Structure formats: structure tokens, C-alpha cells
Amino acid sequence: MAQISRDDVAHLAHLARIEMSEAELETMAGELAVIVDSIASISQVAGDDVPATSHPIALSNVFREDVVGETLTQEQALSGAPDEEDGRFKVPAILDEEQ
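Above: the chain's sequence. Below: its structure in C-alpha cell form.
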């Protein structure tokens, strides 16, 4: 089992500006040791013949071909708008700020 000391965890907590109690430091030291051991065991199994992957099953793009179709003109798009200004949709302000 990897040795992650309470002092190691305290140092990391200090760097991350995380306040931890003595009990939390002890608990976290044990938990981090288990994580490091788990990663080490996986590293032993994954040899040079095993390619690094982000997913165990190959992903494929399921999107359709990007083809330009019929589009609305600016006038058509704005024809149903309750309000428009300078060729754009006009909506109520939500931040009380003028842009």
C-alpha cells in the first residue's frame, strides 16, 4: 500500500487553501493511499501493447451531414417578432444595464 502521510495531505490542503481537521487529514491520507494503489495496479496491467483510450468502446459521429438547406430571410425571421430594432429581435432588458 502506498504511503500517503497525514503531513502530505496537510501540505496539499495548505497549497489548495483547504482547511481540514485532524480527523479529516487522517481519513484523507487513507483514502488517497487507496486511490494511488488502484492506479498503480491498473498501470501494471496496461502494458505497451494496450493503447491509451478515453473510452472502452470506439465512438462514432452520429450526426447527419452538414448541408445548407432553405433558410429564412431577415424579414421572414423578424415577421413574427413582437418587437424588432435595427434588423434584430428586441427583447426586454434583464440586467438594468444599457449595452
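The CA atoms of residues 78 and 86 lie 11 Å apart.
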